[in-house]
Amino acid sequence: MSIFNHNTFQKFSSSYIDYVLNQNQLFVQYNAILADSISKTLLENNITLTNFLSNDAQSKMRKTFDQEFREKIKKDGFVNSLSKTMDSWFTLSEYFGIGRWYKKSVDQFSILNKMLEPLRDNLNRTDSESIKMDGQYHLLHYNSKKVKQDPILIVYSLINRHYILDLLPKISVVKTFYR
Predict the structure, then answer these.
(1) Beta bridge mates, 141
(2) Which residues is 142 bridged to in the sheet?
(3) Domain named Poly-beta-hydroxybutyrate polymerase N-terminal: which ranges (predicted)?
């Protein structure tokens, strides 16, 4: 039994050819930008074989190259080539089921992450008790051995987990505050 019928094979072939042509055009434009940037950098900074490796020459070359490369890479021709290459890749990837594979992988990772979350929350952490607040927030009260200690409020980043400052006992920021 054939996986592709004739019509599907023609669409696949056309998509593959589009991708290869777009990718080649992108590589040609990228390499042209790279070559132009390098040559302008060498000419503008009077770089020769004798001073090529000096720190001053390297610093000037990096600055000039970075400015030149960034300027040229933003031009419409390169951006259009990049866009066409990405579009043709996504069209081609539909034939291989890459989107379904990626979604399945992310789903499996998410399940694994949910199983490991309680372990990560409690493993090697400084002793604390959770005090529920309004909504989905809670306050962690770390149990201190010292009786007369000024309280410290630690506000964690909104994009990291609360245990980011308490990863391992030897390098825990929370434990350092106890000392």
Answers:
(1) 129
(2) 128
(3) 123-175
Residues in the chain where the model's pLDDT stays below 50: 1
Amino acid symbol at 103: K
Domain locations along the chain: 6-96, 125-178
Residue 162: burial class (beta carbons within 10 Å; 0-12, 13-18, 19+): middle
Residue 7 tokens read as: 């019509």
- Per residue in 24-42, pLDDT tens? 998 898 888 878 877 887 7
Alpha carbons 88 and 179: distance in angstroms, whole number = 59
Angstrom CA distances, 65 to 57, 74, 95, 140, stand at 12, 14, 40, 50
pTM over 0.85: no
CB 45 within 8 A of CB 58: no
